[in-house]
Write a structure and sequence with these properties.
Blueprint (H helix, E strand, L loop, with lengths): L1 H9 L3 H50 L7 H9 L8 H10 L2 E8 L6 E8 L17 E10 L2 E4 L9 E5 L2 E4 L8 H4 E6 L2
Antiparallel strand pairs: 1-2, 2-3, 3-7, 4-5, 5-6
Helix pairs in contact: 2-4
Length: 194
């Protein structure tokens, strides 16, 4: 008889523990969801920044006029001493396509031909269990550079009709001022470290 009484008193002791564990697991699940939601917003902003920076560098490369350059300027161009046009206009369009707004676009000042673009996501992180994050927007920055695929060698003879030749991975091409290669064939655009 005494054993039956003890069992009756202890039978309800596990219920608060189960309630606490279930509530804790639900809180953890909501916290992981909030962190995941913030991470997804950040990743989206980083993708927008990458696309915007690449667009700015590509626009700068594509607007560059190769035909007006003398051999000294061509040497500077392929050695990294000469930069192209401003390509920031293209960055705004690509950021918008990726759900972000450009908050900064600057040409690189470190001797490289390229742009650093900073974007802010249009959509905030949203309602989460973390107070104060409802109106926060993700901000991300990316840098893209224009890098030569070829090396330029000026012509030895100043009276030569060609300003020089290009060595593109072992393939040598004499430049013809009347039929210049496309800038996309001579320079590549890629993301770089800030």
């Amino acid at each position: 008889m005494r054993g039956a009484v003890r069992r009756g008193r202890e039978s309800g002791q596990a219920s608060p523990l189960y309630v606490f564990m279930v509530a804790s697991l639900l809180f953890l699940a909501l916290a992981f969801f909030a962190v995941g939601q913030a991470g997804a917003t950040r990743n989206g902003a980083q993708s927008a920044a990458d696309a915007a920076a690449l667009a700015a560098a590509k626009e700068s490369r594509d607007l560059f006029e190769l035909g007006d350059l003398d051999p000294d300027a061509l040497t500077d161009l392929f050695d990294g001493g000469l930069n192209g046009e401003d390509g920031c206009g293209a960055s705004h369009a690509y950021a918008a396509l990726n759900g972000a707004t450009v908050v900064g676009c600057n040409e690189l000042a470190d001797g490289r031909w390229g742009f650093t673009v900073t974007v802010q996501s249009r959509k905030p992180v949203g309602d989460t269990i973390l107070p104060g994050t409802e109106g926060d927007h993700a901000v991300a920055t990316a840098t893209a550079v224009v890098v030569p695929r070829c090396a330029f060698e000026p012509a030895d003879d100043e009276d030569s009709p060609s300003p020089g030749s290009l060595d593109c991975e072992g393939s040598v091409l004499d430049l013809d001022p009347e039929d210049l290669p496309d800038m996309a064939d001579l320079f590549e655009v890629r993301l770089a470290e800030n």
